[in-house]
Amino acid sequence: MTEVLGPVDNVRRALTEAGARDTVTVFTTKVPTAAAAAAALGCDVAAITNSLVFEHDGSPLLILASGAARVDLGKVAAQLGTGKFRRATPDFVLHHTGQEIGGVAPLGHPSRIRTLLDHSLAAHSLLWAGAGDHNSMFSISYEELRRITEAEELTVR
User: Fold this and answer.
1) Is pTM beyond 0.85 here?
2) Using CB atoms within 10 A of its CB, is residue 61 exposed (0-12), middle (13-18) or buried (19+)?
3) SS3 assignment for the chain
4) CB burial class (10 A; 0-12, 13-18, 19+) of residue 157?
5) Cβ neighbours around 154 below 10 Å, total
6) What is the CA radius of gyration of the chain?
7) How many Cα atoms sit within 13 Å of 131 on the Cβ side?
8) Per-residue pLDDT, 81
9) Non-local CB neighbours of 76 within 8 Å, separated by 6+ positions
10) CA-CA distance, 24 to 1, in Å (whole number)?
11) Can you tell me the mean pLDDT for 96-114?
12) Cα(85)–Cα(34) distance, rounded to whole angstroms?
């Protein structure tokens, strides 16, 4: 029988399988926004890595962007070059990630999702990202995040 894991357990497993440390921190209160996470962690909101899911030609596209910035959809669409590009619905996000909006992690999904990583995050020695639910985050370096997600570096703002 296959063990069914929760979203945070899937993130923990994905981290260790990728050769990264399990640095998941679980909070007693929800941290569903970059501002809430930064306040709970005592860090700059720019060091929070938002995991934003978009739909690109019917497939998921994950953009890892700084919590201090808004993704410029026109700029990203121009860099992608072709195809229909839009913000994904909550059902689409849950289906492709196994995680709800506000807690989406950069990894731990049922299958690999094409991922773009915002260059501006490289300015921080330590990043924090959602760990699969509204109460969990994990810490990681920019290079390690790029490596384990196989992300394409891009300017998204």
Assistant:
1) yes
2) buried
3) CCCCCCHHHHHHHHHHHCCCCCCEEECCCCCCCHHHHHHHHCCCHHHEEEEEEEEECCEEEEEEEECCCCCCHHHHHHHHCCCCEEECCHHHHHHHHCCCCCCCCCCCCCCCCEEEEEHHHHHCCCEEEECCCCCEEEEECHHHHHHHHCCEEECCC
4) middle
5) 17
6) 14
7) 23
8) 84
9) 54, 63, 85, 116, 154, 156
10) 27
11) 96
12) 23
**Which tokens sit at 99?**
């995680």
Beta bridge partners of 24: 138
Q: For residue 133, report the phi and psi dihedrals to the nearest 5 degrees.
A: -150, -175
Q: What is the pLDDT of residues 61-95, one digit of tens each?
A: 999 999 998 999 888 988 888 778 899 999 999 99
Q: What CA–CA distance (Å, rounded) separates 81 from 83?
A: 7
Pairing of strands 152-154, 114-118: parallel
Q: Which residue has the tokens 């998204």?
A: 156
- Cα–Cα distance for residue pair 19/149, rounded to 1 Å: 12
Do you know the residue count of the chain? Answer: 157
Q: Are strands 48-56 and 127-130 parallel, antiparallel or unpaired?
A: parallel
